[in-house]
Each structure stands twice: as structure tokens, then as C-alpha cells.
Amino acid sequence: LRDETLQKIEQSEALQELNQIRVETLGKKGPITEVLRGMKHLSAEERPVVGSFANEIRDHLTESIEEKKRELEELALNEALRKETIDVTLPGKQIHEGTSHILTQVMEEIEEVFLNMGYKIVEGSEVEQDYYNFERMNIPPNHPARDMQDTFYISNQLLLRTHTSPVQARTMETHDFSKGPLRMISPGKVFRRDSDDATHSHQFHQIEGLVVDEDITMADLKGTLEVVLKQLFGEERDIRLRPSYFPFTEPSVEVDISCFKCGGEGCNVCKGSGWIEVLGAGMVHPNVLEMSGIDPSKYSGFAFGLGPDRMAMLRYGVNDIRAFYQNDRRFLEQFKIKE
Ligand code: PHE
After folding, report:
1. Beta-carbon contacts of residue 171 (< 8 Å; ≥ 6 apart)
2. For position 267, what pLDDT does the model report?
3. Tens of pLDDT along 271-305?
4. What is the ipTM of this complex?
5. Are 57 and 1 in contact (CB under 8 A)?
6. Measured from the CB, is residue 324 less than 6 Å from ligand 1?
7. How high is the mean pLDDT of the chain?
8. CA–centroid distance, residue 164 to ligand 1 (Å)
9. 168: Cβ below 6 Å to ligand 1?
10. Spatial distance between the Cα atoms of 19 and 22, rounded to a whole number of angstroms
11. Where, by residue number, does Mg(2+) bind (predicted)?
12. Contact 209 CB / ligand 1 (< 6 Å)
């Protein structure tokens, strides 16, 4: 039995097999246990002889099994190590790290400028009532000015806002002037039913600003825009106001900045005149104040509408607005924030 078992142990190739040999020979139902159990039938002289012989065999086999077990375990470990080696010379997988969108970056930069001047940020809803988007902005039904802003209607009364001005109407009607002047910007998405091309997108962004208080004049508007535009486009910029028309401001102006060198190779935003239009603005129309429950004989205000898409195009020499919305990583990665 011993030799036979030793041979089996020697030949076993797996831990499981070895365990089975142990159970079969040394286990409760194995031959050695049986021999030891059967000793009570033996004579007093035979007992110690058979007993020590059986014990000897049992110890020997137990030891052999233990030894073989260690051997097999080591083999298994070596095999595992061999299989799991890491080839450190293989090229790594590149991890693509995202970055905030260039428009987000530009908008946050503009917001920062206004926050530093004590403006609050108010965000409205992209789905707006016709009433706030148009009527409260001094554009009654059938007014020709509605043609200036081709509109996506959702129903008779609901639309996708064509500008962020409705947020101002909503803020004006709740503002408490006993707590100080109203100074706000409203950043966000706006929508117009334009065919997309290099300079038109059915979705773009505005940051509209509004200040209402006693004795606000055009000089305040010009001074504010000068400070803001110098921060955004460089201290050397001059600004210029040209008369314009918006239904919600009177007088209305278009604001230009003097030429500058934009980023990117061959970038040239200045075509001839030396000035570039950057935004529209004006003094809040008395009708707009009145409809918002503000007495135009006591209060006055200025408003302006900034286009972050246009700002980004000018600053970085992007000549197709659609690039902002196509999410081509090759385009977006150019504006990775450098740590
Ligand atoms: N809301 C205007 C637009 O979208 C922009 C603007 C805002 C112009 C405030 C003047 C004053 O066309």
C-alpha cells in the first residue's frame, strides 16, 4: 500500500488529485484508519507491532503528501507569474482627457468680468412665452421687428427664446429698488430659424446685460462697455458707438472695437475699416421699463447684448460658427486649458 500510494503521490499533477489520494488512503474510510480501528481484535503482542507499523506508514505518507503539495503550489505560482508578466515595453493606451468647451470658457471669462463689477447672473428658461420674448420687449404682435428674429414656435404662445432679453423683463418686474440698483447679466442659449452656414447657427449664445437705477445715462453705458471690452480684447482697444435700431432700446447703438491681431495663423478679422462690430446696446426703452412696473420718469437704464460665439470667432480666428457645434475633437482640443 505504501509504495503504491507513494507512486501515486509522485505522479499526481494537480492539487485536487493529491487531495483525493489523501482522503482515499488516510481518510476516515481509508485502509490505514481501518487497520488502526481493527487493532482491538489483535492480541496484546501483535498490537504494538501492527500499531507502530501502521502509524509509521501514515506519517510517511502524510509527509510525502505535504511535500508534494508544496511542490505543486510552487509550480502553480510560477505558472501564474509566467502567464501574467507585463510587457513594460509595450506602448501605453492614450487617455483622452476632456476640456471645457471653448464657448464655455469664453462665457465664464465674460461672467467673471461682470461678477467683479457687482453684476448678478440670472439664468432664464430656453422655452419662453411669446409675451416675455416679444411683447415685453416692446415688440407687439404683427410688429415688423419680429421679422428680425425668425422664431421657432412650439405653440401659439410658446417659443424657443430668440434672445436672452426676456430674462431681464422677468427680473425687472420683481426687483426691489429700495435694496439698490439692478445690475445683471443673463447668459444662455438662444435659437433662431436660420439656415446654418458659416456665420449663422440656429442655436447660439448671448450674454445680455442690464443696469437700471436713477440717473443712468449713455455715458455709463459707454464707460462700462469700454472697461469690459478692454478686458476681453486688450487694453489698447478703442471703442466706437454707431447709431442703430432695436425696439427695446432708445437710442440704440452698435458697438465696434478697433482692430486687433487675432489668434491663429493668417488670422485677420479686420477688413478695411479698422473697426469690428462686437455688440448691440442702448438705453432701455421707457415702454419696457413701464411694462415691467418701473417708473420711467424716475429710473433709467442701459442694456447690451453680447455674442460669445462671435467673441470666440473673433478672438481665435474661427471662420465657421458651425465648428462650435460639430464637436470635432481636433477642433475642440486646440482650446485645451493649459495647466
Ligand atoms: N436682444 C438683442 C438681440 O438679440 C440684443 C440687444 C440686447 C441689443 C440689449 C440691445 C440691447 O438682438
Report:
1. 122, 182, 184, 186, 210
2. 63
3. 667 888 899 999 999 999 999 999 999 999 999 99
4. 0.96
5. yes
6. no
7. 90
8. 8
9. no
10. 5
11. 250
12. no
Q: Going edge to edge, which strands form the sheet with 203-213?
A: 120-121, 182-191, 203-213, 300-306, 275-284, 249-258, 239-246
Asked whether the CA dihedral 23, 29, 31, 32 is positive or negative, the reply is positive
Is the CB of 211 within 6 Å of ligand 1? no
The three cell numbers locating residue 307: 455674442
Which of 146, 160, 171, 248 is the pocket-test mutation for ligand 1 (most atoms within 8 Å of CB)?
Answer: 248
Q: Which atom of ligand 1 is nearest to the CA of 208?
A: 7
pTM (predicted TM-score): 0.71
Give me the residue label for grid cell 511542490.
Answer: 71
Residue reference for cell 415691467 = 292
CA distances from 317 to 101, 102, 230, 274, 326 (A): 16, 13, 18, 16, 17
- Counts for the chain of helices (H) and strands (E), in that order: 12, 9
Go through the chain and tell me how many residues it has.
339
What tens digit of pLDDT does each residue of 30-63 get?
A: 888 888 888 888 888 888 888 888 888 888 888 9
